[in-house]
Amino acid sequence: MRTDLHGPLSAYAARLHATAGDRHHVASPLGAWLLLAIAATTADPATAEGAAAELAQALGTDLPSAAEVARTLLDAPHPLVGSATALWHRPGQGDGGQAAWRAALPSTTAVGVLPDQAGLDAWAREHTLGLIETFPLRVGPDVVLALASALATRVSWATPFGVADARALGAGSPWAGRLRQALRSPSQGHRCAIVSTAQAGDVIVHAAPAQTTDGAGLVVLSVAAAPQVPPAEVLAVAYDLSAGAADGAQPAGSRSLFDLPLGETPLWTLTEERVRTRARDGREERHSAVLPCWSARSEHDLTAPALGFPAVAATLATAMTLPVERFEARQTAVARFDRYGFEAAAVTAMFGLTSLPPEGVARTAELRFGHPYAVVAVATDTRAGGTAGPWHGLPVFSAWVAEPEEVSVA
Q1: Which residues contact 386 (CB under 8 A, 6 or more apart)?
Q2: Which end of the chain is more exposed for a tag (fewer CB within 10 A), N or C?
Q3: Banded pLDDT at 376 (limits 50, 70, 90)
Q4: Could you tell me which InterPro entries the record lists for this protein (predicted)?
Q5: How far apart (Å, rounded) are the C-alpha atoms in residues 37 and 88?
């Protein structure tokens, strides 16, 4: 079943990327959206009406639909995109009450006792192919619940890039003088187009497909607009064009090269030559692309109300009957794009926090059985209905310990 997520995820991505602005960064809007959707599985609008409405607004769809999408994606993992989610709580907190919210979670979502920091870091490494070594948040004694997702991929291109002199990026490129080499798309296997869009005018598009596994693949789409177009608009166009990228379709609005003037623009160089061609009208169109290698590591604060995590904290606190008073939410994301492939990972995390008890004085007594002492073994006997049986409270064995022995090493 194909999930109807593209519209809600595009809207969520616009809000998340807006928090980073125009700085170099990588993010996983899907990784954050999935945490909201997991919270949606636990939501009871009757007991958390305000939080449920805020959560639905952030998700861009109703809660049952979001919950079903989360279960569908996580319970049928993609062969090339590893995914993991977890909901942890403090021992003795959040593990009581009704079990309905547990049953509604995706079956692959781990539920259990909150790990220590070393355990959280190990979880991040395990589920990101080692690309992210530390959990985005630092656990403390005031954390009563944690919700986390991890997404990771490492793929090789079906057809690797060639190499070009970086000056091929164009005389107006700020990178042409800083780099020695760039990547050139191969003559076959990659897809390129010049596309007319309402939001950003003409944009250039390059699609690099990865090697497939069991019929599943990954296509990395690169989209550039004129330098003056704001990043938010270019990202929005990229999300729009990504809807057809998986099917290999020619993007809507693709322009014929014979409708464009010859010469240089900030986005392309168009030339013409006489060739032998089997094109029906004798006019053959060829595309190639020159791109730089790149890598990024980013940290994103996800506490802005528009990103939905205030509602997640309130929803889970209600479902799990936990004294959550405030929250933290953060995402760590990394990516690398080079001649032979692409790798990326993201860990998204939210902590529900409570106030620590007021500071006071504690005394600790260590009891020392260092001389002869008595021992009595008493039976417990609780029968059906909670009534005490005849053995309950009966001393069965007793002893006086006067000759201690060495601790066994076995």
Answers
A1: none
A2: C
A3: low
A4: Serpin_sf, Serpin_sf_1
A5: 16
Q: With cut-offs at 50, 70 and 90, classify the pLDDT of residue 133.
A: very high
Q: Which two tokens stand for residue 399?
A: 């002893």
Give the separation between CA 154 and CA 156, rounded to whole angstroms: 7
- The CA distance from 81 to 1, in Å, is 17
Contact 236, 199 (CB under 8 A): yes
Is the four-CA dihedral 19, 38, 331, 138 of positive or negative sign?
positive
**Which candidate, 338, 402, 362, places its Cα nearest to that of 160?**
338
What tokens appear for 237 in the block?
């166009």
Per the structure block, which two tokens stand in for 358?
A: 């007021």
103's CB contacts (< 8 A; 6+ apart) are: none
DSSP helix/strand/coil, 85:
strand
* Every domain of the chain and the residues it spans: 6-156+294-353, 191-288
Q: How does DSSP classify residue 140? A: -
Structure tokens at 88: 């942890």
Distance CA 373, CA 146 (A): 46
Give CA–CA dist 395/182, Å, rounded.
Answer: 83
Pick the residue with more confidence: 250 or 87?
87
> Considering the domain 6-156+294-353 in this protein, what is its CATH number?
3.30.497.10
- For residues 102 and 321, the answer to whether their CB atoms sit within 8 Å is no
| CB neighbour list of residue 161: distance below 8 Å, 6 or more residues apart | 183, 184, 185, 186, 208, 291, 339, 340
Question: Side chain identity at 334, as an amino acid letter?
Answer: V
Angle formed by the axes of helices 63-75 and 49-59, nearest 10°: 60
The beta strand positions in 157-268, using DSSP E, are 162-165, 181-184, 191-197, 201-209, 219-224, 263-264
Yes or no: say if 151 and 81 are a contact pair by the CB < 8 Å rule.
Answer: yes
